Amino acid sequence: MKSNQAPATMPPSIVNRQPSTIPLFLRAALGESTERPPVWLMRQAGRILPQYRALRQRFPDFKAFVKTPEAAAEATLQPVDELGVDAAIVFSDILVVPEAMGLDYEMIEAKGPRFPKTIENQHDVDCLRSGVEAAESLGYVLEALRISKRELAGRVPLIGFAGAPWTIFAYMVEGGGSKTFSKARRLLYTEPVLAHTLLQKITDTTIAYLQQQVAAGADLLQLFDSWAGELTPTQYRSFAVPYLYQICAAIPEVPKTVFAKGAWFALEDLAELPCQVIGLDWNISPAFAKEKTGGKKVLQGNLDPCTLYSDTKTIEKETLLILGDFGGHHIANLGHGVYPDTPLDGVRAFVETVKNYER
Amino acid sequence: MKSNQAPATMPPSIVNRQPSTIPLFLRAALGESTERPPVWLMRQAGRILPQYRALRQRFPDFKAFVKTPEAAAEATLQPVDELGVDAAIVFSDILVVPEAMGLDYEMIEAKGPRFPKTIENQHDVDCLRSGVEAAESLGYVLEALRISKRELAGRVPLIGFAGAPWTIFAYMVEGGGSKTFSKARRLLYTEPVLAHTLLQKITDTTIAYLQQQVAAGADLLQLFDSWAGELTPTQYRSFAVPYLYQICAAIPEVPKTVFAKGAWFALEDLAELPCQVIGLDWNISPAFAKEKTGGKKVLQGNLDPCTLYSDTKTIEKETLLILGDFGGHHIANLGHGVYPDTPLDGVRAFVETVKNYER
Fold it and tell me: Which segments of chain A have a pLDDT < 50?
């Protein structure tokens, strides 16, 4: 993965392009040695930008915002225009998938999502739509991708995304965020067959949804496994990894990134997935990640988002440390989504430090 | 640590006893090879027991409960009587320390703690009491220890405890629980000198408090670093480990356990602390923990608390797996505090499996 040669797993969409037209971000995602690491931020489309906050004011309801493709596309492009990041990520939410499957959610300001109805038994699972049938209600995300792609006009690649099956499962069973996710985790012990049935339905839906995202213009896909760190290593291997595998294998057309927050213990398993990039949270040292993934994957991350509250000098120093530790062969990002109250100057200092980096 | 010889670091309180009178739990904590692993559960004194729930009803206010030594002692002894665990842990809360330092908190039912006033600047830190001056208001915990010790009458050892400085710091700055603890973590970047000053004041108070706990009868002390997993490895080394070290070094009289939840990345540092036992959460495989601590510490843990929602057979199987992985030389516990809605039968199955274990 560390040579200038296209790796054997290069997706078809890339193989047909002239090498010189492949953008920096995609070249890095494919493991090429690039002139500098590309940089973007998880949650870059969001409250850190004054332009976003202005746009958001037009939609008192968050879900109405997500479901208005023109607005979502505008939020998608804002960080490219304002911060000069090397990739755009479509503005949406991972919870559109459970909603499409038939489990409605509310987004409560400053508190997070809440599902009035949760999954408790086999009947609840049977009632859920899945696969293409569920994904077909997500046309608004596809339209946001199409508009974004057109308006980007090739400036930078466009990232599509979805929640990983275990994380979506956790929300559907728990009904919202949780300190322990003990309701969702309990079901893995008490109803393992039911759990696998639900995980498979989520997986089928996610595959259909992500395939459509690629058709609508997504250049790379990222899977967010936000609650990966709640599971034991054994559980992650049986209730998470096989579904991640199915999804990655079902979409060979574009490179894929798996970001499993807190799953330091699963890095060796994640390194075997048919994906190209592994996202890292800020707990994981570059050395540990490199050792565990054995050079099989491109690594993405992993500056502590709180670093961006510092002064410019500290941000530069910490960013350069991480770039050095990764040896330049990686995709620069934070180790978590950027926090909403992060000063814009801090974000700019991070982006600029990476863009000025010379290996 | 794996022989029948008393380790060189054996605390004076133990050295003076006849070997045959040292209880199982303490022998295991000192690294002796024991006939079976001792077992107890974090949060064993609490809502899992009907006797606790009945006692709790007499105190609508949680803090009034904690501050009534007779009631706290009764809660301390209940799990010994009802579950047959090998150690008692004094019923209290880690937040009594910030309160003693001058930062009052409220315990909001089903939500957790809230500090109406938080630490924001140097003046706030200057106003805090610390050391012996702060600890002297915690006489009610000492009295609960004395009553518990008397009523235990030597049946099992009595564990005292405190929050680790970083975790107490996080509550004092954040004002309660948090999804990201970004306010507390931010301060480590923006005001490192202030952060160290506050951490030192917490440390001084904790040392005075724990020394008094030993004088009141605590046979072993456990430090809970509940938010350890929020820090980067570098931050943990500079803002957490040195304070844990000071505390452990200041109380040579009894064995000490450090439970740093989520701090898998710091196991090598923790292995150098002058403590005897390292607590492990359920993410960490016994093999990983053994490798990183290099046999220097006794390990405690780490069954996933959600296992106890299963049927007896599954609980037995999972418990035996963990006992086998640790090779019998460890202290059996969960990887987190037992969840309040855990069925009592599940807890009993866990305790009994360990007690019937033959290496």
Answer: 1-8
Contacts of A306 in chain B (CB under 8 A): 182, 185-186, 188-189
CB contact under 8 A, B336 and A185: no
Q: Look at residue B1 and tell me whether its pLDDT is greater than 50.
A: no
Largest CA distance in chain B: 57
What one-character-per-residue DSSP string does B32-63 give?
---SS--B--TT-SSTTSHHHHHHHTT-SSHH
**Mode of pairing for the β-strands spanning B106-108 and B220-225:** unpaired
Q: Is the dihedral of CA A285, B167, B224, A182 positive or negative?
A: negative
Count A/B contacts: CB-CB distance under 8 Å: 79
CA torsion angle for A44, A45, A48, A51 (degrees, to 10)? Answer: 140
What is the predicted ipTM? 0.93
User: B189 and A306: CB-CB below 8 Å?
Assistant: yes
Domains and CATH numbers, chain A: 37-355 (3.20.20.210)
Q: Which residue has the tokens 């049938």?
A: A133
Could you say which DSSP state residue B335 is in?
Answer: S
Q: How many H helices and E strands in chain B?
A: 18, 9
**How far apart, in Å, are the Cα atoms of A80 and each of A154, A187, A310, A335?**
12, 42, 23, 20
Can you give the pLDDT at residue A6?
41
C-beta of residue B117 within 8 angstroms of C-beta of residue B103: yes
Residue A3, pLDDT score:
40
What is the rounded average pLDDT for all residues in chain B? 94
Pick from A112, A186, A306: CB nearest B306:
A186
Chain B interface, best mutation among A43, A108, A173, A182, by max B CB count within 10 A? A182
| Neighbour tally for B134: CB within 10 Å | 23
Decide if B75 contacts B47 (C-beta within 8 A): no
Output the pTM of the full model: 0.95
DSSP classification of residue A176: B
* pLDDT averaged over every residue in chain A: 94
Question: Mind listing the pLDDT tens digit for each residue in B223-233?
Answer: 999 999 999 99
Nearest CA in chain B to A230: B283
Residue A339 is given by DSSP the state P
Distance from CA of B107 to the nearest CA of A (A): 16
